[in-house]
């Protein structure tokens, strides 16, 4: 048994009716005592633990953290200190990464709509790798690098055309996807590259989607992509990095870290089995798996409203801070900070002027009263990073637990 698995535990439990999140009694936290708006409480320790897990895969060349999942500066600085790189999708994310101490050589730049300004910045600063997602983008890159007379290392993001069996809004590798190139684009790509003095092909990349729960889909993707990688490498000797993307999912209904670790171990074993004969460097671009578990959102019950069929719990936090349930029908567990006896079925909603501002249509929780606090679990990925000021509601305030 691996050493890390002995650290597995339930992230949430109650002690004397008080919710404990990874060792922290949330109700007693000074930020909850002085509560005046919804909070996001982060645990750096949990992020550190994930970095250690992923890096246990010794053949992993580099872990690039997907900044889009969580762009909290404290978390990014921790990730930087651990020697990881970043996967970014905009000039804003590049500039933030540089501010947090990452070097241009740590930056992998993805995204389907890179502007001329963004490409110039990437070339000027000699970032590590830019992943190309369309023929038109490659033409633009070739043109700009010729004008600037500066080289750029690129990767080709290719669609393995596998079904990620995830929510359609987060599946990315199907044939008519806006993301990535298809294999039939390759001959045109190669002609463009052969004519370019400055654009250097270093990597082949794929990303099948996000919140992928079935690890066998990664095996399918690797088995499709590996022959393509080898074939391209036989013609472009500069290619030496295989970029495996991100996308490993989590069970949002279960908070035993042993099950997360088990899923990562399965994926690592798939990579070890399928890639061990390759001398190349491997990259991963993981977001959710690194940070989703590392934060909880704390909100307050404002009103409890009885309708004919429902008991509606109206919170002070809404879809402006946590859009995932509305956009992907995602489940986020809710835990009262103080446990009261008895259970009740609630519809849990936010305060926004939108009928879709609903976290749960029907969830059984321990009894709650107006003024009580609740923690919304797994709020470390794609929560605050997707937040808006819609209705001019405040964006959650960051609090650091350790
Ligand atoms: N690499 C690329 C090219 C990506 O597009 C993404 C995520 C990642 C890596 C990181 O994927 P992860 O390991 O985090 O699954 N807002 C959605 C997820 C959108 C994912 C977008 N791309 C959600 O809340 O579920």
List keywords for this structure.
402 residues; 24% strand; Lyase, Ornithine Decarboxylase, Chain A, domain 1; binds ligand LLP; eight-stranded parallel barrel; alpha/beta
CATH architecture level-2 label of the largest domain: Alpha-Beta Barrel
Structural class, from helix and strand content? alpha/beta
Mean pLDDT: 95
Identify low-pLDDT runs: 1-6
How is the biggest beta sheet arranged? 8 strands, mixed
CATH topology title of the largest domain: TIM Barrel
Tally the structural domains: 2
Name the CATH class of the largest domain: Alpha Beta
What fraction, in percent, of the residue positions are helical?
A: 25-40%
Total helical elements: 11
Q: What fraction of the residues are assigned to beta strands by DSSP?
A: 15-25%
How is the topology of this model organized?
Layout lengths: L11 E4 L2 E4 L2 E2 L4 H4 L5 E4 L1 H12 L4 E7 L6 H9 L3 E4 L2 H9 L7 E3 L6 H9 L4 E4 L2 H14 L3 E6 L28 H9 L4 E7 L10 H20 L5 E3 L13 H19 L5 E4 L3 H4 L3 E12 L4 E5 L8 H5 L5 E3 L6 E7 L8 E9 L6 E4 L20 E4 L2
The structure holds ligand LLP.
Ligand LLP binds next to helix 10 and helix 11.
